[in-house]
Write a structure and sequence with these properties.
The complex is a heterodimer of chains A (536) and B (67). By secondary structure, chain A is an all-alpha fold. Chain A has helices at residues 5-25, 32-37, 44-54, 58-71, 84-100, 106-113, 116-149, 153-202, 204-211, 236-254, 256-263, 268-284, 286-299, 314-322, 327-363, 369-393, 400-424, 430-452, 461-486, 517-534. Chain A is globular, with a radius of gyration of 22 Å. In chain A, 59% of the residues are buried. The model of chain A has no long low-confidence stretch (mean pLDDT 83). Chain B has 67 residues and is mainly alpha-helical. Chain B has one domain (6-66). Chain B has two helices and no strands. The model of chain B has no long low-confidence stretch (mean pLDDT 87). Classes of the chains: A mainly alpha (536), B mainly alpha (67). Chain A binds chain B through residues 6, 9-10, 13-14, 17, 20-21, 24-25, 28, 38-39, 41-42, 46, 174, 178, 181-182, 185-186, 189, 193, 197, 200-201, 321-327, 330, and chain B through 1-3, 5, 8-9, 11-13, 15-16, 19-20, 23-24, 27, 31-32, 34-36, 38, 40-41, 44-45, 47-48, 51.
Amino acid sequence: MHLHFVDYAIIAIYFLFVLGIGFALRGRMKTSDDFFLSGRSIPGWITGLAFMSANLGALEVMGHAANAAKYGMFVNHFYWLAAMPAMCFVGVFMMPFYYGSKARSVPEYLRKRYDEKTRTLNALSFAAMTLLVSGVDLYAMAILFERLLHWPFGASVVASALVVAVYIYLGGLTSSIYNEVLQFFLIVFGFLPLSILGLRAVGGFAGLEAKLPNAGYAHTWANIWHASQNPMGINWFGTIFGLGFVLSFGYWCTDFLVVQRGLAAKDMPAAQRTPLVAAVPKMFFPLMVVLPGLVAIALDPSLTKYLNGRYDNALPAMLGKFYPSGLLGIGLTALLASFMSGMAGNVTAFNTVWTFDIYQTHVNPGQHDSHYLKMGRFATIFAVAVGIGTAFIVLRFNNLMDYLQLLFAFFNAPLFGTFLLGMFWKRTSAHSGFWGLLCGILAAATHYSLYHYHVITYPSDMAANFYQAIWAFSVCVAVTVLVTSFTEPRKEEELVGLVYSLTPKPRNQDLPWYERPGILAVGILALCVVLNIIFW
Amino acid sequence: MGLDIRWPIGIIFTIYGAVLIIYGLVADPAIFVNSLGVNIDIWWGAAMLVFGLLMGILAFRASRRQA
């Protein structure tokens, strides 16, 4: 791949704009609430697109294109089965507790609902996970630019990490959210022509289907019934319960990276709409990610012509094949934008959890607000520095997505059990949250060790991750229920605003129908069912 | 929050659209063999330009309403 002056100019303009947004917001960061929560002032469509974009890291775009080349349309499950129900659920049922309880972070909600030790356990595990994951985006970007353009690995890591650090340092969460919206549109405009040109090159959908190495590649559901028939080796139970329920709800409903965008919204209806606004583009993203992956494998089934022996090359290889200079600059900018939005999401989530849930709670409480604002800025620099270090850990795993699913399964899967019981069963006692969460994480760790040392085996790493999530979640729920039955429940008046049955429902009657979360969610789910039927 | 995000989006997409259209007009047509013989720079540049101007108009109208 060879770049011309025009491509470099386009990339330079992008850097100028993301930094410019940071500088423009610099003067507005007066309190810690401005920095960490955007002063709860942002309209729903902006937080919604940021919610979508924070999730669009390296793994989303490159990883799912790679998985589409490897596993076929099965990957659509990551967008439909594993996102739509959970995104609707968090918007309609969970956002009222997150936003309404005035918690500043997910761990802070856990302190209100359970107790201090539950919060601390979650804050520590989340902080660790976020730091690891932020390195993934950095690594993916740098290795890509090294392979494609022979830019030195270290230089791309440091340069792009510095840009992210500067714009968050200056403008906090607002800067991250505003840049995510810009990045969202750049990603769409950068990748959409790839699908159009790719589809033309293979002769439309019919041509694509004929050229795929295996007829099952063109179906989302058709091979689900038996593990032996689909390339991932996962049956319907592992897919629906592991991916569609535990991993997906664990991620969308409890991961502070995405929930934080909702907390920045200006009012309750805007907070509830945040994940619903995000769900609409998310639903159509297979068009921009799965399709180029399928085109790549259709044009190069032996991985020798364009892919250079690696599924991970699917998306960049197609950019190089179809994009002329000019558009190539836009395509590479879109890749950069997706890496940066993913990394920035992790950094803002980390600096908030670190400052409020660890530093302010355990290390240095009772300081003036400006002290915590300074700490948030310091944590931003720290997180970026650790992210740079983590970029090298990722080298040990051959598939980026499997690595990330592994981490989610460790921490998110049991956490969803804790939330589900805490929000919807008022009997759940204060102690039980901690023990359930801890045992769930230990169950995930045990399962991982058994799999790693081949005591138990699965047909693919992805299958192992799905089942690990199922075990972690089940153990968490079982232990929480067990401990609850031995301990005192909390007083009901303490749980108002935190538990479903004790909280007045948000009244949305005065909103027009297209702004009511419930109606939007039903519409989104219906559209999603239609897509599943079309691409059965 | 003061800054209307539609301004930077509108401006960057207008610039990108203009750059792509101009480059598509002056570039050696041989480079469009990649894109199946379509001068995609001009077409996609026009799409980005329209989107950029639209965002700019929305931002402008919102700023007038506030003032």
